[in-house]
Amino acid sequence: MEGRIIFATNNKHKLEELSAILEGKFKVLGLKDIGFEGEIPETGSTLAENAYQKSHFIYERFGLDCFSDDTGLEVDALGGRPGVRSARFAGDNSSYAENVDKLLRELKGKKDRSARFRTVISLILKGKEYQFEGSVEGSITEERHGEKGFGYDPVFLPDGYNQTFAEMPASRKNKISHRARAVAKLVAFLKK
Ligand code: ITT
Questions:
Q1: pLDDT tens digit string along 119-129?
Q2: Which of 43, 86, 92, 103 to mutate to test ligand 1, by most ligand atoms within 8 A of the CB atom?
Q3: Which residues of 37-56 are buried (b: 16+ CB within 10 A; e: fewer)?
Q4: In the chain, how many domains are there?
Q5: How far apart are the CA of 111 and the centre of ligand 1, in A?
Q6: Could you tell me the residue range of the domain that residue 12 belongs to?
Q7: What CATH number is associated with residue 168?
Q8: What pLDDT shows up at residue 3?
């Protein structure tokens, strides 16, 4: 029988991606499926801390095994920013569009546009935590390209491809992305 796993996220795009990546392996339940509609606090200063905070929060309240994902976009010319602050780059409650606008503004005229997405997954299994990391190298385009995906996808060109994450089919992003790479490690662990 297909196993079930709870993904502690409020981000519906991430839930969709993970459901697609894990299709046929695990049925992914979101927070709504377990009756939780609130926000999970995220106050850590690293991806690993935030990932742990999210999975731990749900484990404490519901006593259920679960995993979370914390992701950041690290831009070399910005000293690794926005990084752990990727969701709030342009301010608290900023939209994806505002964050992308700020990124393009800060990189205007800059030659070095190299960047990477990094994901840390925190899994809690029988009260014990395990972490899995995945990253993908690429560069930030001068303008937006494509409508698919979410967040910074329209301006992220993965190395070796001529389409941004927002131009390529979801099935391709889901093979090569930071999240896909971290999830592959999670699956290998869960299968052991
Ligand atoms: P949860 O914490 O509830 O899972 P979140 O949106 O707050 O959802 P993060 O804290 O990991 O997630 O924030 C990362 C931000 O980075 C997110 O809001 C997007 O703007 C961006 N991001 C994450 N994954 C991305 C991806 O695959 N493609 C493009 N942008 C992404």
A1: 999 999 999 99
A2: 86
A3: eeebebeeeebbbbbbbbbb
A4: 1
A5: 26
A6: 4-191
A7: 3.90.950.10
A8: 83
